[in-house]
Amino acid sequence: MMKALIYEGPKQVAVRDIPKPVPQEGQALIRVDFCGICGSDIGIFSGTHPRAKAPLVMGHEFVGVVEEIRGEANGFRAGEKVVPYPLLSCGHCFACRNGREHVCDSLRIIGIDLDGGAAEYVCCQTDVLYRVPEQVSGKVAGITEPLAVAVHTLHRAGFRPMDRILIQGAGPIGTLVGTVAKHSGAARIIISDFDETRLAVSRKLGFETVNAGRENLTEYVRRATNGDGADIVFECTGAESAALEMTGPCRTDGMICLVGVHKAPRPVALADMHFRELNLTATRVYTKRDFEQAVELTRHISDDLEEIISHVVPLSDCANVFDLIHDPKETTAKVMVDCRR
C-alpha cells in the first residue's frame, strides 16, 4: 500500500492508503520526491475541471527516483532521478499528424485524466522520462513542468533578446515567464498584480513591479518605455479586468500572448488591435522540445526557482493544502507536496 492525495469530489480531497501501482511492460515505477500544486489542481478541487473525474490521484508536476523498470528501459536504470513529460496524445488527429501533439484534439494529462504523482509511487512509460541534472535538487526539479509552460510561452510570443515585456499576474506562471525572460536577455521586465506579497517576491527576483490596483497600468508602462509601450504583454491571470486592460500597454505592432486561461467570453478593446495593428497569440502547455529545454534550464536558474517555492507540505498532512492556498491570510506562490513524508 501507499499514501496518495485523492480527489473524491468537488471540494473533497483526502490522503488515503491505496494499492501501490505495479509497472506494466515499458513502464518505470517511480518513488515520488516532490509534486507541485497548480491552477489545474485548484480547478479539479473546486469541481470545475471539465475532464477530471473522482476518484483521482492528483498531481502532474512531479519528480522522483526510478525504483523498478519492466521491459524496455530506454536507457534508464534504477536509482536515477527523473521528471516525466505528462502529456498523452492520440497520434492520429490533425495536430498530432502535423507535429503539434501538445494540442491534440483529445489531449490527456497524467494527474487529470488518469492517476498522477501526488503519491508515494507512480508508474510512467519510460519513453516520457527525462533525467534531472545532478546538481538540481528534487524540490527545484519539481518545477520543471510549469517551467516548460514558461519556455513555450516565450517561444509562442516570438520573444527576442532586449525586448521590454509586461507580465500581468505575479503568480507562479507569471513569475516563471519573467524568470525565463530575464535569463534570455529581456531589457526590461515589468510585472503587475494586486497582491503586494506576490509583488515582493517578484522584486526579490529582480523584476520591476506595479500594483495595478493603485496605478494606471497603461500609463506606467508608457512612462517606463519612453512612450512606446511593451514589446510583448503576457496576460497570465485569466481575469476579465486583465483582458480589457492588456491592449493599452502594448506598443504599436506589439504582441499580446494569452497565458492565463479565459474560460468565459471577455470584453477586449478591439479598436486598439485595429488602430495599432497589435498581434494576438495564445499558448497551451508545451512541446517535448520545450520540456527538454526546461529540464536543462533548471541547471542554470536553481536559485531563482527556489525563491518561487513558498510552501512545502508533507504528503501525510496535505489534505488541507487547498485550504492553505485559499486562505486569505496566506499568500502562496508555488506550493510543493513532499511525497517522502
Identify the CATH class of the largest domain. Alpha Beta
- Helices, by number, come to 12
User: In whole angstroms, how far apart are the ends?
Assistant: 15 Å
In the CATH hierarchy, what is the superfamily of the largest domain? Medium-chain alcohol dehydrogenases, catalytic domain
Strand content: 25-35%
Query: Rough shape?
Result: globular
Class per helix and strand makeup? alpha/beta
Mean pLDDT score, rounded?
A: 95
Order of helices and strands: EEEHEEEEHEEEHHEHEHEHEHEHEHHEHE
Q: What is the CATH architecture assignment of the largest domain? A: Alpha-Beta Complex
- Major sheet size, sense and barrel closure: 7 strands, mixed
The total count of strands amounts to 18
Helix coverage percent of residues?
25-40%
Work out the radius of gyration.
Answer: 20 Å
Q: Give the number of domains.
A: 2
Low-pLDDT segments, ≥5 res:
none
- In the CATH scheme, what's the topology name of the largest domain? Quinone Oxidoreductase, Chain A, domain 1
Give the secondary structure arrangement, pairings included.
Layout: E1 2-9, E2 12-18, E3 27-37, H1 39-46, E4 56-57, E5 61-70, E6 81-84, E7 87-88, H2 94-97, E8 108-109, E9 121-125, E10 129-131, H3 138-141, H4 144-157, E11 164-168, H5 172-183, E12 188-193, H6 196-204, E13 208-211, H7 217-224, E14 230-235, H8 240-245, E15 250-258, H9 270-275, E16 279-282, H10 288-298, H11 302-308, E17 309-314, H12 321-326, E18 334-338
Helix pairs in contact: 4-5, 4-10
Please provide a written account of the structure.
- The chain is of the alpha/beta class and 341 residues long.
- The chain has 2 domains: 2-136 and 299-338, Medium-chain alcohol dehydrogenases, catalytic domain (Quinone Oxidoreductase, Chain A, domain 1); 150-282, Rossmann fold, CATH 3.40.50.
- Helices cover 28% and strands 29% of the residues.
- The chain is built from 12 helices and 18 strands.
- Strands 3, 5, 6, 9, 10, 17 and 18 form a 7-stranded mixed sheet that branches.
- Helix 4 (144-157) packs across helix 5 and helix 4 (144-157) packs across helix 10.
- The chain is globular and about 60 Å long.
- The mean pLDDT is 95.
